[in-house]
Design a protein that fits this description.
The structure is a homotetramer. The first copy, chain A, is α/β, with parallel strands linked by helices. Chain A is 36% helix and 20% strand. The model of chain A has no long low-confidence stretch (mean pLDDT 96). Chains A, B, C, D: Residues 140-271 form the GFO/IDH/MocA-like oxidoreductase domain.
Chain lengths: 379, 379, 379, 379
């Protein structure tokens, strides 16, 4: 693995490195950690990398690594830069034969996302998007329960992603995370809606097994001086006839990372909260609610395969993240073994999810500025 | 107290009787429990009433009781009939000098509600509406925290009322509760939106201290064959600039009576769930969340005054209901003592809340059938 | 009902009155609320009693009421005085033909308890003891699950009753509740162990269906200056071979009234907490945990019969208390109808439970002062 | 790092490997994964190790690695074998200059533990014991709150470790984990008490900052045919005057890995549950309870330093485990830099904790077989 972005003072770079390292299957061998070569070097040194493989730019990294013998060069790049530096390195990596794993959202806008998807389709390489939350075992259990009809035809989907860390004007206090996320030239057209709304939409579609097709949204910039939206709520309709509510806000004072979802079908309901991810509550029409817990033998194969510890030994965010990496790595290995790659088989978010995410941001913004009640979400 | 409706096989009548009896301040002295005189008699007997004061109709009750000496006759009527039999008995009672406590919604439509309010204003009598949930002590604490600025200016209000009991076509199985609630000739124009949506709206306005002024709603009839809506969700805007989401559904399979609300301000957030009503969670920007619990010395006066037991001795739905009755009784006593009645002083839902509830139902239906995004809620 | 004790400034008297009033089946008709006749009169007046039936002493009340015609006099007495004034009024009431309901513990010591039981047996009258917590519907469900073998043979019972209100020397600050409870001349030989330990023991025996037969206890007086124990913990053995832990402490700083119990059998486990009494968690060996909730159709008859509201409309402490009163009232009614009374049939704590409670206090104190590991609990 | 034990079909070996790998600071370079050389080879291959460094026995590994140049050989061994194979490899590693990290309990009995501690003291090398649960950030916060007097002088400590996985005779079904743990020739004199009771004792001493000095225990073998205890409960006294209850059982049907602790002081109480490790509840005498959450700025330095993700991004068991590894690695690095090692400085469980653990098992067994109430726990 070669990393693009993720110098020592970044947040998500370290998360990717730990997630990749956890299972002993992926080794960080090189990186272009910053557009500032000094910072890149310092990061590489702190990570015990061979100094000759710590590069000053992603372009240099891709070129130089390509010149190494195949069994020595990196297999894939991990792109953990702000959104406006997703497309170019991903494109270059793919065009030079490297697989790509990339932090969400996939790109800066729909056009970039679609272009990337085309390159993936053409090259047959593997591209995974770290919609982390679908990596949780009980999210996979929930998806499987819906798919196998346990709760009947889905009627309602409520998905929420409330955070509180942007309740004040933190971007004015030098907070690096806040600064680029609230800057449209780096983040793209969406603020909260891009940063976390896309996670909520992806989770809802992943569990319900159905796409969002119409949106009726309210988008706010609550904190004075902020350049992008920090609060959103919307009514949504799904392809299968279900409807629901999606909200994503970063001004829910005191909330942490409270992504949660409820899905109700004809026969039962499901409830999952990311902050206590090892519990899935199932509600029934005429019998006791059930507490599904990670690590038990009664779970579906997908849930079991994405679990490392016995029940009661809690797994968390890094493990969910690592599950995305492991699924991606299986794809990479199969590609190296000459197999054709069908992303669905590996159960990781792919380029198509990336396109949908960007289209979601677009549709929300369009809806929010329209007097019409419903705006289609088409890809 | 004389009761109108509430024969032995009804649900809410018994609730009213227990709530009224709990504190030993109110005595049931007469009743017209059913339009079927036999049923009314049987109910009166089971309740140990003097047979001469068990009446065949509310009209008879009001007339006969009025003829009794003032210190012997009932002081007020409690109306617990289906919605279409709210207005007439309430009007007649008020016009004959009896105070009225009435199950929500106040009437069948806005016109009736406004007419009742006029009679209340003219007669100076006391009318209370049993929006039970505002009777909980920690709801009063939440309201007080908002009012005193503890969480700062309110930005977001999320209020939900999911139930699951109408997930199937129970009105086709002889369920009496379901039958009248899903029958527009008895329930009014709103199904779920009238039955529980009005509670959610009332709670949101009570705690936030601000009125809902605009609505953008989706209304569904999910269960085939049902005559009224059984599912709703909407974006809402408040007078003070806050926005939020309100949902009320009766097809949330497996949910019980899961009314809950979250209010976020500039400085903190509040979270309360009716099913565990003795806990109020407060979230702060930079310090630990707090668990406010009923029965502690640190609570506001309104919370303390509406609590009967020390902390850790849970109170519930009947106690909240009884709090509405006790507030109403204070008003009745003051009126008897010759004082002018200002409903705000007693902290019970009044005729104006009733009018707002009916206007809410109207606005939701109007919004749901409109292509325009926002529909005003005006009274 | 005639009440002995329970003047306006007492805590438990009001609880008894509300519990008795809730269901409209029991009427307070007279009282001797205080040994101070003025206080008794004031209390009677506040409760709207006929002044001629507010008495200056319990002896006067029993004598005068007995002289009233049978259909006018009180049916039973409710004794809510401190522990040292339980035996005499109970004895006198029974010997004069009045049934008795009495706050726990039944008496000041084992001898008094046994003497009372003898009188009950001899007179055939009804005596109930308000071990409130067995009145909760889900406690009855738990008992039924054990009884019907759902969780298999019981192996472990953990019961805890931590409170925090005696963490400081509150009896030195004029706190009336604390003062008599920590005064051996009023409370008896046990402090926390009598006040709340007896509840814990009773609950454990009620749910497990088996008696505690051996005790290995540690008893502490943690707060300096206190005259009685305020903290206890003990290992216990049950008649059926199960073992467990019982703890009752009043110095668990910040705890409210956190009575809770876990019972594990060969096939499953049960968990119940008084502070959220409408939830019972069931754990299984190889399938999801279940959340049993009050008010559902799947519950046992005893649970259903002791519930007033549909699921999700929480009931609490007063309702549990009222359930004891209602069961007692059924006994009283049957006695009046000439039936022989078998306490087991009515499912209320009776004189035998009272004797066991006092014997429990004795055994704990004996164990705590002994170097021997195990002390038998015999009745 | 060189690993001893932990072939592919073992549980705890993989846990150690992932914990060591997570932060990119420790590399697995060699191993003797099984006493079966074929199994060892297969494991090494699956872990991408250089085949020349996959050894047939720990003795071979220690000898051969010692012959490698200092900058190429392993720095330390990680011992993850059953308890009876802890002492010999640890002794040999230390005597050959390798640091040691070892799964708990440290050895087979007190004598071995003390002997190991002597070697550690003599060699000045680093030995860490993976009492995982002290690696959780909020356990460190709890310890710090006690240490800094936030909850006042400690009065009560309740620590529980209920598991349910040995509720049936699983060792008769070929379950490898169960088989060695219930075999006294591999596990030592203690069953549940050694396997999980030592964790509970360690956690209680770590948070309370005080040693257990007296024990009054009941030890059971609940499941028929089992060779060792599977259930224990005991009253305990601490050096600082506090008392409490410790229970460790593996027949709590349906429980997972429910380690939890409550500590009450004069001014407040703490409550932590391993299964939801990112929450610490603090209870106060006269103000709202607080919910301390991992990842917030208000935490103590030790808590912050042992956290990888922002609040609301849950960390779990593997992260706590990794924290022990990271603390150990800091010690190893300092030793390599020529510094003298004071285990207290690194905040990892050390040889002295190991000795206390074995002495705890001994004292419990002694107490359980004695008629005397209290048995001292001395080291």
């Amino acid at each position: 693995m070669g990393m693009i972005g993720g110098s020592l003072d970044a947040f998500i770079g370290a998360v990717h490195r730990k997630a990749a390292a956890l299972d002993g299957e992926i080794e960080l061998v090189c990186g272009a950690f910053s557009s500032d070569p000094k910072k890149s070097k310092a990061t590489g040194k702190a990570l015990y990398l061979d100094p000759s493989r710590v590069y000053g730019s992603y372009a240099e990294m891709i070129e130089k690594e390509k010149q190494l013998p195949e069994d020595q060069r990196m297999d894939f790049v991990s792109i953990v830069t702000p959104n406006h530096v997703h497309f170019d390195p991903a494109k270059m990596a793919l065009e030079n034969g490297f697989h790509v794993i990339i932090d969400k959202p996939i790109a800066f806008n729909v056009a970039e996302a679609k272009a990337l998807k085309k390159i993936v389709d053409k090259t047959g390489l593997v591209l995974a998007l770290t919609h982390t939350y679908t990596g949780y075992p009980l999210v996979k259990e929930a998806r499987n329960m819906v798919k196998t009809g346990k709760i009947g035809k889905v009627r309602k989907v409520y998905v929420e992603y409330p955070q509180g860390w942007l309740s004040t004007f933190v971007e004015g206090t030098g907070n690096k995370q806040a600064s680029w996320r609230t800057d449209p030239s780096k983040s793209g057209a969406g603020g909260a809606i891009g940063d976390i709304g896309t996670h909520a939409a992806n989770l809802a579609e992943y569990i319900s097994g159905s796409d969002i097709v119409e949106i009726n949204a309210l988008l706010n910039t609550v904190v004075k001086g902020r350049q992008l939206d920090d609060d959103s709520s919307m009514l949504v309709k799904f392809e299968n006839g279900a409807s629901g509510v999606l909200l994503a806000t970063q001004v829910a004072a005191g909330d942490e990372n409270n992504l949660n979802i409820r899905v109700y079908g004809e026969k039962g309901g499901l409830e999952w909260r990311q902050e206590e991810p090892n519990t899935l509550v199932v509600k029934w029409l005429d019998k006791p609610k059930e507490i599904i817990r990670a690590g038990w033998g009664y779970l579906c194969d997908a849930a079991k395969k994405n679990t490392r510890t016995p029940s009661g030994h809690p797994e968390g965010y890094l493990e969910a993240f690592a599950n995305i990496y492991m699924a991606f790595a299986r794809g990479v290995r199969d590609h190296k073994a000459g197999k054709t790659i069908d992303p669905a088989k590996y159960d990781f978010p792919d380029a198509q999810d990336g396109v949908r995410g960007m289209a979601f941001v677009d549709a929300v913004i369009k809806s929010a500025t329209s007097n019409k009640k419903w705006t289609p979400l088409k890809v």
